[in-house]
Fold these 4 entries.
Entry 1:
Amino acid sequence: MATLTPSGLHRSTNRIDEHEIVRQLNDALGATLVAALAGVKSRQQPNDWAKSGGGMPRPDAWNRLQFAHQIWTALQEEEGRDIARRWFIGGNPLLGESTPIMAIREDRHADVRRAAQAFIDGDVDE
């Protein structure tokens, strides 16, 4: 069972190209949800960020994308792709019934990490 320690998650994400991180999130969640969690208005921006040589998001959006990728990777490895996606878009009791997408957008990273860990550990129902 994975433990979502900030240092371990941060290390794994830092070894991946920035554009690849966005490509993986776009593939997993779709550009619309990636734009929502990053806090940007344009649904096209995540597609632009995913292109090699494309622009990169501003620092606050980039922090959200890195964090989302860390949580996505851990959930996907433990629970599988479909369940990880449903977790990201479903209301979560540990987040006040907010979705993890919106909690990440609101920079509630510690809350999201705890909710993801509880899910992996089986401490809450989906």
Note: The first helix runs from residue 6 to 14.
Entry 2:
Amino acid sequence: MEFDVVVLAGGGSTRFGGVDKAMLVLDGMSLLDRVLTATAGAASTVVVGPVRTTYREVEWTVEDPPSGGPVAGLAAGLTFGTAPVVVVVSCDLPWITEEDVTALVAGLGERDGFGLRDTDGQEQQLAAAYRRTALAQAIRDVGDPRDKSVRRTLAGLDLAWTDPTHSGNDVDTWSDLDD
């Protein structure tokens, strides 16, 4: 099934002391490039955040208003591409693989979304495949997307989740890189 990708990479990385988390290197590759490798099968890819050097060509955009949070980033990213399925990933998912992305798209079924759980069982809304129409409607329903909660925005969607997996672990602190 054809899918587009929205990569959220515009956060302030405050827990990293302002270091650009997307450009942190793990095993010789930036976190952003690791996510872009996992999503290489997309019909289109847009990264929401400041333009950076990446290993492959992607579209770039920023949320309006800038620094408006992940829901504003999703709103900006959804203006790109036309595939009926959108895979949403944050740039801080260094263990996600192409196989994971394929499984998310294949596992969508008739639901609005299908996402990864991290090893603690936490649902990762920013590591999931969504039906474009359902995701766009949820964002429209929230009104102004600035500083809105992702969980509350997507609460009305019919979502399902994988079993806990290392691929769903994100990097929020320096110690998370040691996983």
Note: Helices lie at 31-38, 70-77, 98-106, 132-142, 150-154.
Entry 3:
Amino acid sequence: MLELRHLRTLVALRNAGSLVDAAERVHLTQSALSHQIKDLEDRLGSPLFFRKTRPVRFTPAGQRLLTLADQVMPQFRMAERDIARMAGGEERGRLHMAIECHSCFQWLMPTIDQFRDHWPDIEVDIPSGNAFDPLPALARGQLDLVITADPQPLPDVHYEPLFRYEGLLAVAKQHPLAKHAFIQPKDLASQTLIIYPVEHTRLDVFTKFLTPADVHPREIRTAELTIMMMQLVASERGVCALPNWAMTEYLERDYIKARPMGETGLWGTLYAAVRRELMEHPWMTDFLSTARDTSFSVLSGIRPT
């Protein structure tokens, strides 16, 4: 019998491109995921995807189920939202947020658009300006949610993990470091490091990579926008460390090269920081769920927490 969990699994497999990554997304072992799919194939009497292909290629039967999933799952999600609203009444509220991640708008804007459609009575805003430090402002009640990769111990603040990401070093295609399998801290001692104009203590390239090795770049240069950073890197005016998803477009266009930082890579987690009292509201639960789902649908190279 076909179940909703089967459709979720197939969608995860399509979005992830491999059994290993899909298993992480649906919180199963690879063995359990393979067994679930094989069991479904046996029930239906048809294979759903071609083995040993990457990314995964689906059979006509698999494509038909994916079409069904694309029709059914949004309706199921909408019903969940409607029931949550019924349970909570016509709830009104405020969702003022700040973003400590310069590359987050790629997935956050679609999340906000979808959220507004389903929760029109919740006032959503991203206050402009830098008149406050976001996380302390969250604790004081000036903000309701902060997107951050740098959680701080604050009273009554909950950190909801959204996804894990790898920080990569972007270099020009002809740069000597482009030939390295991975970057070591000492490799940056002679480089100009391009960063966003934020404190070094909020950047993984310093806190998790350079500072523990007591290495300092030859020079530090700042740029406000990712595209500016990529232009500077491509023209050999420096190197920069960014989340993997922020470089996808430029890597696909062969504009720059990217290398892992450290032999095992430099991984971080992006969180939604929320005051604990707001976690009781169904609209906040839905926003976090929508943010997570949207992230995995539009970003490459991220992993479940």
Note: The chain has three domains: 4-86, 90-160+272-298, 164-267.
Entry 4:
Amino acid sequence: MRMMKNNRNETIVVIGIDHGYGNMKTATRCFPSGVARYDKEPIFQNNLLVYNGMYYQIGEEHKEFCAEKTQDEDYYVLTLAAIARELDGKGMNRAKVHIAAGLPLTWVATQKEDFQKYLLQNECVDFTFRNKEYHVEFAGADIYPQGFAAAFYRLQDFKGINMLVDIGNGTMNIMYINNSRPLEKKCFTEKYGTHQCVLAVRESLLKELGTVVDDLVIEQVVLCQEFGHI
């Protein structure tokens, strides 16, 4: 999260958000991309978000794979939760926010405009997360190719033929960088990621040892992978 000033000298909070299929990530937070919706206030409220008269438990399991992240309201609600977590880390509950988000490499061209409109569907929003009220005004949203940010400021270091690979929970993005130049025609998005690898490991353990790995153990492994701890 960074602060900047606009041309009216207003403070804008820039928040980068990775809308993953397995986990939502910001600069300092990571949580499962799961949403459970309730018409009435649920009993357990550890990660409860209240928005537009509805109740949402954030982090309940993982969201199913969907090629269009705008097909329902889940990723919008998850975006609010991600913003709230970042603001809370700075002791804030009101801000004018500019979102920096990403899409799989080969989907950016066709989905960028729709995803931007999706994230900016409201000029401002009031909601409650973890019993704390938030007021957020949206200053804008930029959509980037996933993974490319890792190489953008070091392109001059990529001499010869290189391959940039971003392995997520639901997709794997591959980009060729030849002599510091990204090759748009050699970008690929595969529907294969950590989730599929975990399923293969689970199946192997069941076959070899007759052991079923608990979902909580798998979730911890995936969270460590997302943060680069393993």
Note: Residues 2-145 form a domain with the Nucleotidyltransferase; domain 5 fold (CATH 3.30.420.40).
